[in-house]
Automatic annotation (TrEMBL):
Cofactor (UniProt): [4Fe-4S] cluster
Iron-sulfur as UniProt keyword: yes
Annotated residues for binding of [4Fe-4S] cluster 2: 115, 118, 121, 155
Residue numbers binding [4Fe-4S] cluster 3: 125, 145, 148, 151
Family: Belongs to the 4Fe4S bacterial-type ferredoxin family. RnfB subfamily.
Protein's recorded name: Ion-translocating oxidoreductase complex subunit B
HAMAP family: RsxB_RnfB (MF_00463)
Main subcellular localisation: membrane
Organism: Marinobacter xestospongiae
Top enzyme class: translocase
Length: 191
């Protein structure tokens, strides 16, 4: 019994020593991001729609920080372009029509009585805003839907509509100018 306790204690000490050598005991693994990328990403609308030619807002933010054009985001539209121009101290450019046109905020709505439960919309949703199970009706969590439109094309029975969201007290958001954004680290210290 005593030898088992000694063996366990030795293993624990070895694990702590090994963890200390790797730096785990002193500090958890942490990746420091580029503050400019963080600020750009905060301005982008987070629709994850891919209309800009990137798989999501974060990769587009990284590309903008590397000098890419600021006018490829139709969901963000003119407001986002102006905020990015202010942040980067460049002239605003008109929205690049190659990537789409600016539209009002929309959400997906599934006509549930027509849904066959194929799950193709669930697989296409980049923000997990669609609930359902195979061979059962699906529904959209409207508050989570970014209006990216990526669920519409995969639907084999065409039972998904994109509906314009009317601005009201529940859906209105304030987009401060980029000059008001302050980069902070995880402890809230101004960077």
């Amino acid at each position: 019994m005593t030898s088992v306790l000694i063996a366990v204690a030795v293993l624990l000490l070895l694990a702590l020593a090994f963890g200390g050598l790797l730096g785990f005991a002193a500090e958890r693994f942490r990746v420091e991001g580029n503050p400019l990328v963080e600020q750009i990403d905060a301005i982008l609308p987070q629709t994850q729609c891919g209309q800009c030619g990137f798989p999501g807002c974060r990769p587009y933010a990284e590309s903008i920080a590397d000098g890419d054009a600021i006018n490829k985001c139709p969901p963000g539209g003119e407001t986002t372009i102006k905020a990015l121009a202010d942040l980067l101290d460049v002239e605003p450019q008109p929205l690049d029509a190659e990537h789409g046109v600016e539209q009002a905020k929309r959400v997906a709505v599934i006509r549930e009585d027509e849904c066959i439960g194929c799950t193709k919309c669930i697989q296409a949703c980049p923000v997990d805003a669609i609930l359902g199970a195979a061979k059962h009706m699906h529904t959209v969590i409207a508050s989570e839907c970014t209006g990216c439109d990526l669920c519409v094309d995969p639907c084999p029975v065409d039972c998904i509509d994109m509906v314009t969201v009317e601005a009201d007290i529940r859906t209105w958001t304030w987009n401060p100018p980029a000059s008001n954004l302050i980069a902070t680290d995880r402890q809230g210290v101004v960077a």
